[in-house]
Amino acid sequence: MKRILTLFIALLVTTLAAFADAPKGTLVIIGGGVTPSGMHRKLLDLAGGTDAHVLVVPFGKGPEADAAPSVASFGKAGATHIAVMSADDSKAALAQVQSAGVIWFSGGKQSLMMPLLQRLGVVEAIRERHAQGAVLAGSSAGAAIMSKLMLMGADKTKDGNIVPKFGEALGVWPEVIVDQHFVKRGREPRLRAAIQAHPDLLGVGIDESTFVVVKGGGFEVGGKSTVLVLDSRAGGATKRTELKSGDKFEWGRK
Predict the structure, then answer these.
(1) What is the per-residue pLDDT across 66-117, written as a single tens digit (0 to 9) for each?
(2) Which of 28, 113, 178, 227 has its CB 3.0 to 4.6 Å from that of 243, i.e. a possible disulfide?
(3) Which pTM does this prediction carry?
(4) CB-based contacts of 248: which residues, under 8 Å, 6+ apart?
(5) How confident is the model at residue 224 (pLDDT cuts 50, 70, 90)?
(6) Interior angle at CA 210, CA 232 and CA 54, nearest 5
């Protein structure tokens, strides 16, 4: 009896620690294309309302990228506090991250966005804000950077094999490799090659105008098209799960 009680207490402590370590924030990851209608208001609602401080990160098109469209979209959604991340002042950028309730990463190229975030020294602060409860959202390049291991394209060998290229990203969704524009650009072979190289991770391919809302150990799909999950974690044949709007997925289950 004493042994059973000891095991129960140990399990309870482990479970409580896992809950304590779980990020309090929400991820909203869009596969690119036209942003789903009402998305900017949805992000504000997830962050507590229109008074939430919004930080726009437009660096997918470089440090001089135009943030005006994103600022306008949040303004139309009712946001009262909107800032654009400084591209040349690391202290200012850090302060912006630390006060943000919503951090929005717009599209472009993840190969442009991540190096600038790293140079500004804000990557760890972004992770901390997510852990504390901030909503992190991104489309296209802003989706790809949510992984820890980020897809940055792929090469094809003479015999037709696909060789993915990877980089280090935000790591706020470390269990997966995200791929975007998925159905529109026929990227299933690329994502399959990526998880063959890293079978401990899930492949999550999100099509255009489609999104996932990630919270805790699962996500829910929304939008017009589909999300594909490729799972090789159990060994053997890759499990392929296609999801549509309203479907849910728990990645803890192999």
Answers:
(1) 999 999 999 999 999 999 999 999 999 999 999 999 999 999 999 999 999 9
(2) 227
(3) 0.89
(4) 218, 219, 220, 221
(5) very high
(6) 110
- Joined tokens for residue 60: 């997918």
Domain ranges of the chain: 25-250
pLDDT for 65 equals: 87
Residues 127, 161 contacting (CB under 8 angstroms): no
Which two tokens mark 234? 């159990």
CA separation for the pair 212, 247 (Å, rounded) = 10
Model confidence at 251, pLDDT cuts 50, 70, 90, reads confident
Q: How close are the terminal C-alpha atoms of the chain, in Å?
A: 33
- Asked if CATH classification 3.40.50.880 holds for the domain at 25-250, the reply, yes or no, is yes
